[in-house]
């Protein structure tokens, strides 16, 4: 009896499979699932983020920030500045986590209803004037990350490591954010890029620069 049931089930299974094939062929090509191609990183195929690319999770950094408004130019505070070269801040694969730290900080401040006080300044006007010795140690063009929150800046200094920390007391946001140069256009060499993901789009940091 058991053998008879097995023999009878086989044709039914084939019929069901045939029905599925017919149903699939009836779907227009444009509606069928498109296969995902693994992203190319540095001339090699990165398997790590294939699923993320399939879901559209990897986007230019500037498109993934919560909408926010920077601190008012007239706000006066005691600022902390972390200084390094523009290349170190924006073109070093080891520092791409910095953008993630900023994005998380923006989200945190937005939830609390507080303004965003983290600013990037390229070739600050105060650098040579107030800190000539520190300026001489930094490759140019120099960039400063400034913020009045000492606890968060201590965290970022430890995170970034190779930066120079200075204090800018009793200054307005406009004064600390005065820049004398644009951030240069970096040319990323794909063959030398070692991170397991594509680099963020150039210019994501501009959202943290006060406009004149």
TrEMBL record:
InterPro entries to which the protein is assigned, alphabetical: Ycf54 (IPR019616), Ycf54-like_sf (IPR038409)
Annotated Pfam families: Ycf54
Family: Belongs to the ycf54 family.
Record's protein name: Uncharacterized protein
Native source species: Chlorella sorokiniana (Freshwater green alga)
């Amino acid at each position: 009896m058991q053998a008879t049931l097995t023999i009878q089930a086989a044709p039914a299974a084939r019929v069901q499979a045939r029905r599925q094939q017919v149903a699939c062929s009836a779907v227009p090509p444009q509606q069928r699932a498109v296969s995902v191609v693994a992203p190319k990183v540095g001339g090699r195929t990165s398997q790590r983020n294939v699923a993320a690319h399939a879901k559209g999770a990897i986007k230019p950094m500037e498109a993934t920030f919560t909408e926010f408004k920077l601190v008012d130019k007239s706000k006066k505070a005691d600022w902390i500045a972390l200084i390094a070269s523009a290349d170190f801040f924006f073109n070093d694969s080891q520092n791409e986590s910095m953008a993630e730290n900023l994005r998380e900080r923006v989200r945190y401040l937005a939830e609390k209803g507080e303004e965003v006080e983290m600013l990037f300044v390229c070739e600050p006007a105060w650098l040579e004037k107030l800190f000539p010795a520190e300026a001489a140690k930094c490759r140019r063009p120099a960039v400063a990350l400034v913020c009045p929150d000492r606890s968060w800046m201590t965290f970022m200094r430890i995170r970034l490591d190779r930066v120079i920390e200075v204090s800018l007391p009793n200054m307005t946001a406009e004064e600390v954010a005065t820049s004398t140069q644009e951030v240069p256009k970096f040319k990323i060499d794909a063959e030398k890029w070692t991170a397991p993901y594509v680099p963020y789009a150039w210019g994501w940091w501009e959202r943290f620069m006060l406009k004149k």
